[in-house]
Specification:
By secondary structure, the chain is mostly helical. It has one domain. The chain is 47% helix and 0% strand. The chain is built from three helices and no strands. The protein is elongated. The N and C termini lie far apart (32 Å).
Length: 101
Amino acid sequence: MKLPDDLAPLFHNYDFTALDGYKNYRLVIRTVLSLGTYLQVKWLFDFYGAARVGEVFKEDYYGLRTLPAPARKLWEIAFIKSPLKEPESGPAKYRSKRIIL
């Protein structure tokens, strides 16, 4: 599935014409959540649905954490019931935050 042309500026590091909305849905969702405008995020939820978007966000939140911290904090409010506590300073701040399920 071809992505809408207004998403092209978000994928400047990729060949936009080669991206597929179904095959690359994780990349599309993470990128739009972190860089998208209101209308792009609205399209994301309309197309993929809140359940799929939440699933991809939770994979990132409890996994590698590739989303930037400001975007992660914003979407944490929407998708996470009990947020992880982040250490403020010291050695604990730099420990791995991945959770093994």
